[in-house]
Amino acid sequence: MTEQPLTVILDTGGGLRLRRADDQDVDFFVLLFTDEDVEPYLAAVRPRDREGLLGEIRRSQEVRGECGRFVIEVDDKGRWRAAGVLGFDVVNRRSRIANLGGLAIHPAFRGRRLADAAARLLQRHLLVELDYHRLQLECYGFNERAIQHAERAGFVREGVRRQAYWRHGEWVDGVLFGMLREDLPEVDATPSPESRR
């Protein structure tokens, strides 16, 4: 994987961008992750407190190729407004695999397919620019919105972990999704010379 100093991934025509989070974004993360319409769908182990989220944001700044916490922003009459967040973490350096997670759109911005567009920007960044081989994500089986989003964003449903998680007083399934470089439209699936080492 190649390390790149990424601050902004820009979709120049769509009025949407991803920006690597910094310390000033922690209050937005806390507000979003504790929202009663967002929190029930997040992984139970994901931090929701200021200290835990600030730690994730700072780690994202320090090890950019292995971890990322991004703010999804929309152009609102020439000003960028925070609309959501998403992130990734390396899970296997040798095989170049990253887990995606922490995707949340503020309820005021739902229904505009921002999550789909943001996911595509992050996919391209990870698979093409940072040379990951595989992206994967998992969502709760009761999270129909996340399942539909993953399918719209081009992920392949790979399986189900039956009753894998204790959430909301019951055992729930985890639905697994994956994406490879060749799953991206119009991208050469040939691995880079660096990745063959």
Structural class: alpha+beta
Count of discrete domains: 1
CATH architectural label = 3-Layer(aba) Sandwich
Spans of at least 5 consecutive residues whose pLDDT stays below 50 are: 2-6
Order of helices and strands: EEHHEEEHEHEE
> What is the typical, i.e. mean, pLDDT?
89
Helix content: 10-25%
Task: Please identify which CATH superfamily we are dealing with.
Answer: Gcn5-related N-acetyltransferase (GNAT)
Descriptive report:
The chain is an alpha+beta fold and 197 residues long. It has a single domain (8-196), classed as Aminopeptidase (3-Layer(aba) Sandwich), CATH 3.40.630. The chain is built from 4 helices and 8 strands; from the N terminus they run ββααβββαβαββ. It has helices at residues 26-33, 50-62, 114-129, 144-152, and strands spanning 8-11, 16-20, 67-76, 79-92, 97-105, 134-140, 156-167, 170-180. It starts with 7 loop residues before the first strand and ends in a 17-residue tail after the last strand. 27% of the residues are buried.
